[in-house]
Each structure stands twice: as structure tokens, then as C-alpha cells.
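Progress against Task 2.4 (sequence-to-structure conversion) is shown through the following example record, which the project officer requested during the mid-term review.
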Amino acid sequence: MSSHRLRPFVALLALLAASAACASSSTTTDPAAPATTTPAPVFASTLCQDGVCWLAPTPQGNTLRAVSTTKTGTSFAVGDHGAVLRSGEGGWKALALPKRVDGDGTDRYRNLRAVHAVADDDVWIAGELGALLHFDGVSFTQTGPESAKDAENIAIWAAAKDDVWVASRRSVWRYDGTSWTEMLSASIGDVPATLVGLWGSGPDDVWVLGATTTGAVRTWHFDGTNWGSDPVPDVSNDLAPAGAPVAISGTGRGQPWLAFEYRVVARTEEGTYRTLYEIAYPDRSAASALTSLRVRSAEGVWLAFRDGHVQHSEAATKIALGAPSGGGTGLAFGDGPEGRTIVLRPGGRLADPTAPPGASRAIEGPRTKCAPAGASVVCLEAVGEKRSQLVTFEPLETGSRRGATRGPLDLAVADTTELRANARGDVVVRSGGQVFAVAGTAVREIARPNGDKAADTLLDVVLAEDGAVYATELDGALLRATVGQSSFTRTAAPQDERGCHLHQPATGTLYVSCVREVTPDVPDHVEMIVRRPDGSVVTRGMLEDRPFRNDPPVTVTASGKPAFAARLYRSGRRGVWRLDGKTWTHFEMEAQDETPVVAYGEQVLVDLRAPEDRENGAALRVIDGADVRTVRVPVHGIRRLVATRAGLLGERAEVESAGAFYSDVVTSAFVYRLP
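C-alpha cells generated for the chain above:
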């Protein structure tokens, strides 16, 4: 982007071509933690893990964190919830490592952060919760020192088969083929340092970057015998601070490159540091900060930024950093075949931007929007900016099978708000405030009354099994269009009713839920009503303390019981309320006004969203009668759950790029079967 500024580029080209604080070290050997070996794994073209089977992208849709490639060209990728991918004939395949089980029976997913593939039968993997594994081509073995069994391992590098280095947030360990030795416990003065990365050109040239919470930054260097430590100059300039350190890379012996949030510096062979790239002070923001760095003499420099965009500078063509050069978007970088850079993108996707034709290791996964269609799932896939196609998937116990494709269609997935389908093959698309019916490859609009196309006045759109399309508007009106109709018929809502939503908890079942103010002068007294589309009442119940939000998320079970999650206005009580007859049953839990709830038959699922709790996965509270249980799903960032015959259709969302006034979200689709 044009706001990024580069110091004289001659310095960058010259370095590419040319390609003491306190640091305590230890030579004592730490007893190894008991080794555990995972049985021979099965890499599959579609990953199924603890009830979750991915639809798009394949083989899986959780975020990948690192990629490494052997000299023979086999690539390995690792990521959240124990995901391990391997390339081969037919593309990428994946497996999920088992959860870690502690002595008290607690089990947690291990998010993997780093991988170094020396050979097909010699792959090292590191991650959170002390994850430190070796793959011998047949099975995975958990190893590592006993004292680091809970460490957050962030980097791993194998200088040789019997010389493996791993960095955690606090320490550096070395494996000699038999035992582990703590090489460095980093501190600056008396203050422990937090490490951000490790890089080495050989066993006698290992570099580590870290900092304290007070802003002191150091590099530590191992020369094969001893550790040295040097402050990095000019990173704490009060007028234009460099920000926190984020990554370390390098071009050759004694030449590490250090990335900070707003600056890149490189060490020369003479031992001095030079600033090569700096974001001008007026242009600095949280979105513009750097997040990752990769330097390769033959391929140039790659930078990733917090707003999601990637920049690539090729030394041979003198492209200035900060000028868009086809890098696209991404989180970090990995090692591809023949030294290529792999860009790790959100949602389990990979980019291989410099691959020759037919050799790409990319996992693209088109933008999708999916909906249940009987026992199948239909997804609208982008085939261009303004065109798409419909694809049918058949969920299986061990994955999914891609079926018939229909298209191209004149519909943009990026503009699609909702997709609805039924077992007959009918499809309806909502795009903002407009509704479109798809017949074959023809797309026609179903016009709303008075030509209204405002998105904020259209609440819900559903497609019934008989092909009729229903919608609700902000004023509570119900819209209906039968098969072939080009416009909706409008039925006004009963007086004082608002917040009307549509629900399909089971095949052939459709309900309308509304909230009614009983007495306008007593706003706390509201009534929730569930009707059928013909207006007949299924159930209704009074609330003497209204939800803090006027229109809380509501779901309705197959028998017509409404349920909602909220914080009540007067009492402040939190949880989920379900209407049983005329009585509201309260299930206390840490629910908010925005907490999603979904009915699955007579069960009510509550998504207690906690995106930061990646090691435990998504927490779903399942209300079944009077019982409440918690299930953990190996996905975080769940955006939507919809009941289907085959289970729950889920959508995971992750921001790929963002600016001051926009965000670009990518989604991944999966089917989840409740245990």
C-alpha cells in the first residue's frame, strides 16, 4: 500500500546480494517427558475430527500456522486443533493429532505453531501445551523435556537429524538425538524476556529474538560454544518507536533480519544493524503493523501486515517494499518446494504465488455460502467476482462427497447474505435487501412490496419444502411467494408485534416468532409468540423482565418451544430461557445478548463464543430437557449453525483483510454431528 515507506532500497539490495544483556544458558540435561506414540495415522482428503467433517475448503478449514518442505518436495503444514497436512499425489491430505489428556482427565486440543520437514520420515512439529512431536513417516511420537511439558513452543529448526532446536516463549532447548538440553533461559537484566522467534544458518550460528514488557529488545547468538547478547539499536526512538518485535529471518551466516511492528532492521557481516524499511509515523496504526517476515536471497523479501495484506519485493527487479506486487493476503510464510514462499492465509488456505504452472501447492477454496438441502448440503461457490455455481455435497460419516454442479449463475457470493435450499432442489438467495430464486441456471428476483430493497428492513428469508419462499420485515410483516411468483404477498403483523423471525427446526416445519409489547407504558412487560405461517398460535408466554436487547437471538424447537439467550434488563440475570407450557425455564450460563442459539429437534444449542480459547475449541452448551451438557468442537470462530438431517451445518468465519472502514471475511464450511 502506498502509505508504507522504504529507506533507500540500495541498502536492501546490497544486503541481499551479500547474503550485551544478561542471557543465562544451561548445559544440564533435563529428563525427557514420557514419550507417547500416536498409532499409524491416516491422511485423508477430507478431515473428520470429533464429529466435525469439513466441506470447504478441503482437506480442512482451521487456520494453518506453518509450512515446511523436504528436499524431495514433500510439504507438511500444521495448524490449530492438531491439524497436520501432507502433500502428495492428488493434492493435500490431512489428519488431526489426538487431544492432550492431563492426569485429572482434562483433554485439550494442541494448536501447532511450527514445523521443520527434514525428510519424509524425519519431520519435527512444535506447538502449544508442550507439543513437541517427531514423525518418522509412520507414526508421531511426543517428546521433549519434562520441565517444558506445558511450554508454548513457537519455533523449531533441525540443523541435522541429531541436532534439533526448539524455542518456547521463555527458553531454547536442543536435542542431540538422545536427550534435551536447555540452552537459553532468556532475560534482560533481571527481567525475563519473551521470545518471538528463532533462526539459524548452522549449528554454530543460531539467533533468537526477544523483548521484555518494558520495551527492552535483544538478540541472542550461539556461536557453537557460547551465547552472546546484543541490544538492537534505535528500536526505542521516542519520536518514531519501532514497536514490538514480531519475527526473525535471515539471508546467511551472521546476517539475521529482525521485524518489528513498524520497522525492519538487518545485521551486516560487520555486526552493525541497518534500518531497511520503516512505516512513516503519520501512517502508523494497529492495522498497518507488521506481523511476519521472510527473507530469501534468491526470492527477495516478504512482509505480512496486520490488516491482512502481503508485500513482496524481488531484489532482481528492485520493487520497493510497500508497493503492491501480487502478494495478496496472508498471516505468515512457510517453505515451499524449490525454496518458494508459501503464504499462509486464514481459513486453512495457502497461496503459492511464485509457483510455475501445474506445480502450485495452494489450497484456495473458493468463497462459499452453504445451506442444508434435505440430507445434502448445497453451497454457492464463487467462480469470479460476480459469478458463482451451486455445488451439492453429500455428508458422509468419514467426510463428504462432492456431487452435481449447477452454473454459472449471475450471483456474487461476496454479496450473498443468506442461501436457502430444500430437498427438491429449489434455491433462494438473499443479497442485502433483495431476494432471488434460482431455477436451473436462471436467476430471477422476487420483488418486495412497494419496490423496497433496503437490507435493514428485511429480517429473515426461508425456503419451505413445497418451494414457497417466506420472509419477515422489520415492522413484523410476513411475506410469501409461491413457486414461480415474481413478487411477494404481504401480510401485516398483529398490532404491537415486532422482531419477527422465521425458524425451520425440522424438515417440513416452519414457525414465526415475534415479540409483543403488552402495555406500551410498561416496556418491561413483553410477550413472546410462536405462530405457524397461517397465523395460528402455537404457544405464547409473558416475560416480566425484558431482555436488555430488544431483539435477542431466538430459536424454536420442533414442537414449537421458543428459547433465547440474553441478559435481562432489570435483574441482570444471564442465561437461556425456554418456554415450557406457560412457564419460562431458566438455564443459568454466561450468555450475552448476542449469544447464538439454535434448535436441533427438541435440543437447544448455545454457542458460548470465546475466540481466544483456541485450545478448547468452541464450547457448545446442549440443553436437552432439564439436562445441560457441554461439548467441545474443534473449531473456533463459529459464525453460524443450522440444523440439517445429517447434523449441524456450521460456518467458520475469519477476517482476511481489514481497513479503517471495511473488513474482508473468509468462511469455511463443515458438518457437525453431536456426540
